[in-house]
Design brief:
The structure holds two protein chains of two kinds. Chain A is mainly alpha-helical. Chain A contains 15 helices and four strands. Chain B contains 13 helices and two strands; from the N terminus they run ααααβαααααβαααα. Chain B has a single domain, classed as ABC transporter involved in vitamin B12 uptake, BtuC. Chain B is globular and about 60 Å long. Classes of the chains: A mainly alpha, B mainly alpha. The interface between A and B is large, with 45 and 46 residues. Chain A: It is found in: Cell membrane.
């Protein structure tokens, strides 16, 4: 009896914050993040380092907390701006995954779509020598259209030939990777860096080394766009017919069909939007965060974005927060490893743990409601 | 021509065994995108144990092939418990769980490889050197024209894979366990009504997929890459998933899909060699297996049908 009571108390501590159903979309990710940081702290303790200092170093490296000393032209602000710079493509990529998921499709090919649109934008605009005022918007347009075409192809293959989108996107990933590697190595290679030649400053979506107030900072123009797009996407999904139809197709394909919704059209449309967003991720990555493309390498961002999207509850605004968190851990890891002497790779382990625990979110929810019922039962019995 | 068959087989067979693992899991109703993570983690455990045993006993790493193989299967199975628990006990979304496990596997093994290299071997390295396993030729079969190449320069693991694959085929299609497993993916309620625990069947199916994926990953590490590093996550697991969907969730058509992959891959590089093109052209030929798959799918995937209860969380109370 006593043991039972103690057990109940413990579960009360864990489940109390997530009992309120209205707040569950926020509380459950927060609880899983806390649990995973505790798990990561144990790992760091096992190596014999101080976890609190390590986490503080992460924040310092990401420009959230001030470092004790800065190199010339650097400050907390520049660190924070490079955090946003790295975060921009991740937001777009995660939004891309989210749109497809809403339509019940699993876009595992974000990396490939990023690469294709980054490459096309690089050769059309990046090397063209156009003025910044034309080049920058053009990069975005080219990126969106290219990505949208690739995504649309996947949707069409699914609709027309019943080809599973997981397979077709994987195949397109590899095909794109090798073909683009061929073209880069034949025509656009920089013999010194073994990468594609740098794109012109005018076409780049990040303003690099802008001198202001005695600082040299990188200003990611795409970041503002990413926030705007996230809000627009939320509007599209929640307040328009298109969004409603896409969600209906995702929830139950058959029911949507009986309701008179054109399933094929909506699947293709969702993939076009998804691919287009992946395209924006591609241009902000290859013509923003970087300025060149490394042949034969597929960015891992396409896969990370799946997880970031899920951590953000497949919700456009949630995604902004989840990509912010993941980018902090990613960006801060270099500084942490230099300061605390912990291997940089631990950062990805922490991210992995966060995702693992947030995958258990449904279980936590289930347990919480179970516990609530039990409590109600007990009260009824007592009265 | 001979090299095409030899290289093709040594690529196709490990892929095939991973795909069989995937078939087991998906036939039981658990979507398995985690094959990539399983094969990597299995290979990590196998490579780690081989390197550690070699370090303590002084036997050359290349001779510890069978030990590594055994441990890789155990490692893959241990890691697959996470997927099984998440999907079956915690009722997590199976796609999410799979993706997360892949990310975690990559992160953990990269971190541990570097950490262990420093702690145990005192060197900063991101890989475990393994070398390539010995090969042998079955003399009297190798003399047959064309087919003979299949018996030339074979890796020992190819034989092991063929044996295990035959057994896996028998288990899935001819045994009571296999029948229940397939039924759990089509109509879990009927399995439950027959008095069989659906969760247990699915749990064991996921463990089998982990075991076989670990084996496949180790074979790749001992042949193509000759070491263990994060480069093991080349997408073999996803390729296996593609193969099994292509093969319509059946073992024999999946073998055909894997062979097409293997031969298209080795054939592509052979053509580039014969035509004496500059090395950058090999990239173009490397796309051959993927483009071919897409084209073939256009013709063959109309009749494709996934197991009916695939990806659904089993809920006893649901009708």
């Amino acid at each position: 009896m006593d043991k039972d009571k103690r057990k109940l108390n413990l579960s009360k501590i864990i489940f109390k914050p997530i009992r309120n159903e209205k707040w569950q979309p926020i509380t459950i990710p927060v609880v899983s993040i806390v649990i995973s940081f505790i798990a990561a702290a144990i790992v760091i303790l096992l190596i014999g380092k101080n976890p609190l200092q390590a986490f503080y170093n992460l924040l310092q490296g990401a420009g959230i907390m001030p470092k004790p000393a800065y190199a010339g032209y650097k400050s907390m602000l520049t660190d924070f701006l490079s955090l946003l710079n790295a975060m921009t493509p991740l937001v777009f990529a995660s939004l891309a995954v989210a749109v497809a998921l809403k339509a019940g499709l699993f876009n595992i090919g974000v990396s490939g779509q990023m690469l294709v649109s980054g490459f096309i934008a690089t050769i059309i605009v990046g090397y063209s020598g156009l003025d910044a005022i034309i080049a920058k918007p053009l990069v975005l347009v080219v990126g969106f259209i290219t990505g949208g075409l690739v995504g649309g192809l996947v949707g069409w293959l699914k609709y027309r030939f019943n080809i599973n989108e997981v397979v077709s996107t994987i195949m397109l990933n590899y095909t794109a990777q090798y073909i683009i590697s061929f073209f880069i190595q034949m025509y656009y290679i920089d013999p010194l860096s073994r990468q594609s030649k740098y794109v012109s400053e005018e076409a780049r979506l990040t303003l690099v080394n802008v001198e202001m107030a005695n600082l040299k900072m990188d200003i990611p123009l795409g970041f503002i766009l990413a926030i705007v797009v996230a809000i627009l996407l939320k509007f599209l999904l929640d307040r328009t017919v298109v969004g409603y139809e896409i969600k209906a197709v995702g929830a139950n394909r058959k029911a949507a069909k009986f309701a008179g919704i054109n399933v094929g059209k909506n699947m293709v449309l969702a993939m076009v939007i998804s691919g287009g967003l992946a395209g924006l991720a591609g241009v902000t990555y290859y013509l923003g965060y970087y300025a060149s493309i490394q042949p034969k390498v597929l960015s891992s961002m396409g896969f990370d974005s799946i997880a970031v999207s899920l951590l953000g509850n497949i919700h456009p605004i949630g995604i902004i927060f989840s990509s912010f968190l993941v980018s902090i851990i990613d960006q801060g890891s270099t500084y942490m490893s230099s300061q605390a002497g912990i291997r940089q790779e631990i950062a990805s382990v922490i991210i992995g743990l966060i995702l693992l625990f947030s995958a258990c979110g449904a279980y936590l929810k289930h347990k919480a409601s179970q516990l609530k019922e039990k409590n109600v039962d007990r009260k009824e019995r007592r009265s | 021509m001979d090299t095409v068959i030899i290289d093709g087989l040594s690529f196709a067979l490990p892929l095939f065994i991973i795909a069989i693992g995937g078939i087991y899991s998906e036939k039981s109703g658990i979507t398995n995108l985690a094959l990539e993570g399983f094969q990597g983690f299995g290979a990590f455990v196998g490579a780690l144990s081989a390197v550690l045993i070699a370090h303590t006993s002084g036997i050359g790493v290349e001779h510890l092939f069978y030990v590594a193989l055994l441990f890789s299967m155990i490692g893959g199975m241990m890691f697959s418990i996470i997927h099984a628990v998440l999907c079956i006990k915690f009722k997590a979304d199976q796609v999410i769980s799979g993706v997360v496990i892949n990310i975690l596997a990559l992160a953990l093994t990269t971190f541990l490889t570097a950490q262990i290299n420093v702690l145990v071997f005192g060197q900063a390295s991101d890989r475990f050197q393994l070398g390539v396993s010995d090969r042998f030729t079955i003399e009297f079969l190798a003399n047959i024209p064309v087919i003979g190449a299949a018996f030339t320069n074979i890796y020992p693991f190819e034989i092991i894979i063929v044996i295990i694959a035959c057994f896996a085929w028998y288990l899935l299609y001819k045994s009571k366990f296999g029948m229940r497993l397939r039924a759990a993916g089509e109509n879990p309620h009927s399995v439950d009504a027959a008095g069989v625990d659906v969760s247990k069947v699915r749990f064991s199916a996921v463990l089998i997929s982990g075991l076989l994926s670990g084996l496949g990953g180790m074979c790749f590490a001992y042949s193509i890459s000759a070491n263990f590093s994060s480069s093991i996550y080349m997408g073999y697991g996803f390729l296996a998933i593609a193969a099994l969907i292509f093969g319509n969730w059946k073992i024999l058509p999946t073998l055909v899909a894997c062979l097409i992959f293997g031969f298209a891959k080795s054939g592509g590089s052979a053509i580039a060699m014969v035509m004496e093109l500059p090395s950058s052209f090999t990239d173009l030929f490397m796309t051959l297996p993927y483009v071919l798959t897409l084209l073939l799918l256009i013709f063959f995937s109309k009749s494709n049908r996934a197991p009916r209860a695939l990806g659904e969380i089993y809920d006893k109370g649901k009708r």
